[in-house]
Structure formats: structure tokens, C-alpha cells
Amino acid sequence: MSDPGAYRRSYWQTQPEYLYPAYKSTVKRAPTKPLVMPPQTISEITGPLFGHGDVKADEADLTARHAGDPLGERMIVTGRVLDENGRPVRDALIEIWQANAAGRYRHAVDQHDAPLDPNFTGCGRVVTDSEGRYEFKTIKPGAYPWRNHYNSWRPAHIHLSIFGHGFAQRLVTQFYFPGDPLLDYDPMYMSVPDARARKRLIADFDWEHTVPEHALGYRFDIVLRGRDATPMERG
Amino acid sequence: MSLFLTPSQTTGPFVAISFERTVVDDLAPPSVTGARVVIRGRVLDGDGKPVDDAVVETWQANSHGKYAHPEDTREKLLEAEFKGFGRVLSDRQGAFQLRTIKPGRVPGPGDALQAPHLVVLIFMRGLLKHLMTRIYFPDEASNAEDPVLALVPPERRSTLIARKVEEGVLEWNVILQGDDETVFFDY
Fold first, then answer.
1. Which of A224, A228, B113, B117 has the most CB within a 10 Å radius?
2. Does A210 map to a domain?
3. CA pair distance A83, B54, nearest whole angstrom
4. Is residue A19 part of a domain?
5. B67 at interface of A, judged by CB pairs closer than 8 A
């Protein structure tokens, strides 16, 4: 029996396996021996906590903090961080990183022959409010080629790293855009076995958060592991 | 209500553009109590090649065995200057280094005490979801009664126990595949 407050294991096929040969880098990096399955303890149920004091307000605007405006389609991304029970996760830290509108990262390893944008670094951070809501502003990243297989292209995506309330809830993911024809060819997206879970990775176009004559709205909700009852809720 | 969990996706090779700004490689300012320790190691792939794009995140209790978290409700001393969270990036040799203190013991299942340990999460290109493991300490008698180590096949336990290099310096490597493959957890 698990300790009280343990996070539920993820349902079958909602998460990728470590070894997914279509994504070549998994072949030499996925564990080959069986994983050990211990019960969660206080060490996994707790984890680093963050708050609004840890992040500056302008870190949620990836289009700011440069001399000029970045090139690309401006977007407002909003959403909620929830657990599997549908409860909001407040004070979740979300770290954001992405390519620029031309599909180039500001990183020495990225040698894609597309221009860097002097007005775009491509990273930001935001903390959720008491309802689990977050919002950040950026530009739509471009698709880019990678060397996984012949003529391989990553669909446009934004990387997110999320800290919930325990290390067991930690999640790093990527979200994609509706209608992208590259998704069906992308081994990272396709690595999620259950098609319904995979759809969780696609943001929705959000007319209501679209700012007239300024920026398109997209909505992306994030679901972290849930549990049956937390010690605080029992009290 | 039961919502579909958001699937994990890899950090990819460019994670440093974000995480290099938030590295925490020294967890224990001078005011924090506890035995100082440097933990250093390398991350190696299935060919024994260094992994130069890994992120190693650690979480631990303070020297009194108290987590800086409201769900640790035990009456133990909290030290405001010790948060317990570390984050380091591997370099071109696959190497990383962390300065911290040896944590105290915390309860495990059924309130049996666990041996001092750090919880470790590892992210990198080629990992569609992160790896979870632990670092234990050498010359620590309580390792023999640790309820989590007890679940690990005896011949593999050494992969979780750091090696003493010199006084205050420990080595702990992440071997992704092969005979000496590090034990990874699924919890």
C-alpha cells in the first residue's frame, strides 16, 4: 500500500515509452533494465515550491525585453494547470522555451540555416494564479528540420517545463498547433500511444483571447498527476 | 472527474536557453547547517559517450531531515536559507557538479526511516519522459535498512550509492545503459 497522498500512476498508454526507435536518440539513451517500482514516500510527494515572488512579471512576455519587436505572428497563450481530478494547481511554475518565427533557436548547437532574430531570445517563465490559470505572450515558432530521418521536420511547438506541488508531479512537455500537417510525421508527437492523450498536446485556437489587431489567442491546458486525497484536504 | 494526463515530451537539445538561467549548483549558503558535500559525476549514453545536454534536478531534506514543504508536518527544524532544490546542466564531457549538505533521515513507508538520499530527475534529448533515481551516501550504516534500496536487486544497489573520492567529495555517475546501468525508478 502506498503512503497517504501518493500520486496515482499514469494510465496505460497516456505517456510515451522510453524506447521509441522512430525517434533515434532514444535508442542509446532509454534504460534497458527493468525499472524498480518503489512506493512514493515523503521524498517524492514533496518538491520545490515557487511563487509569484520568484518570477518577474515581464518574464511572461517573450516579445518584450529587447530593443525592438520580434518578427512573427504574435500570440497570447492562456490555459490552466489542473490535476487529473480537475482541481487547479496554484503557484505552478511554468518555464517556456522555443524557436523563433524562422524555426531557429538561440543556441550554439542549432545550426539550421535560418536567421536569428536579435529581438527574440525564446524563453520565459510564469506562475499560475489561485485558479491554476496562466498567460504568456510570444510569437508563433517556425517549423525546423532535424536529423532524425531523411527530410525530417519538427512541427511548430513550444517547450514547457512545469513544477506542481511535488517532485512526483514534475512534467516537461511540448505543445503543438491545430491543423499542423507535420504532426503525423513527427516521432515525438506520435510516441504517445493513446490518440486521445496525444490530442492533449495540441493547443486550441482561442478567439475569445485573440486581441483585435494585435495577437492571436491559443489555449493550452496542462494536466498533472492527481491523487485521491491530500493530507491538507483531509484536515 | 478524471482528465487525461498531459503526455511528457523530451526537453530536446536546446533546453539550456531556458535552464542555464536557473541553475542551482550550490544549495547550502554558509548559514545552513550540515556536512558539506560536493557531488560530481558524468552522464554517459549506451555507447559510453558523454551526454552534453542533460539536466539533473535534485530534491532533498535539510540536515535535520525536514523538507521545505508544507506536507512535511513533522516537528523538525526548518532552515529558511535551505530550499533543497538543485538543478545542474551537463557540460561537453557529460560532467556536472553540485554543492550541498548531507540530508537527515526522513520517514519511509510505514514510518520506517529512510537512509539519507537525494531524489534525482534527469532530462535530456532522447528521453521522451524524464528518468527518476536517487543518490545515497557511502559509509552510511542506515543504507542497509533503507526501504527503497531494499527493493533494488542487491547487485545493482551500488549504482545508487555515491563513491567517496576524497573528504567531502563524492562521485555519482548516470550510466544510461549496459552492465553498470543506473537503477531508475517508476513511482
1. B117
2. yes
3. 27
4. no
5. yes
Residues 48-107 of A with CB under 8 A from B: 48-49, 82-86, 95-97, 99, 105-107
CATH number, domain of A135, equals: 2.60.130.10
pLDDT in tens, B2-31: 899 999 999 999 999 999 999 999 999 999
- Domain B16-175 falls in which CATH fold? Protocatechuate 3,4-Dioxygenase, subunit A (2.60.130)
Identify whether the C-beta of residue B114 lies closer than 8 Å to the C-beta of residue B107. Answer: yes
Asked if B33 contacts B96 with a C-beta cutoff of 8 angstroms, the reply is: no
- In the numeric block, which cell numbers belong to residue B79? 532552515
Q: What is the pLDDT of residues B58-93, one digit of tens each?
A: 999 999 999 999 999 999 999 999 999 999 999 999
Size of interface A-B (CB pairs under 8 A): 233
| Structural domains counted in chain A | 1
Confidence of residue A232 (pLDDT cuts 50, 70, 90): low
ipTM (interface pTM): 0.97
What domain range is A194 assigned to? 24-32+49-234
pLDDT surpasses 90 at A28: yes
Residue A70 lies in a domain: yes
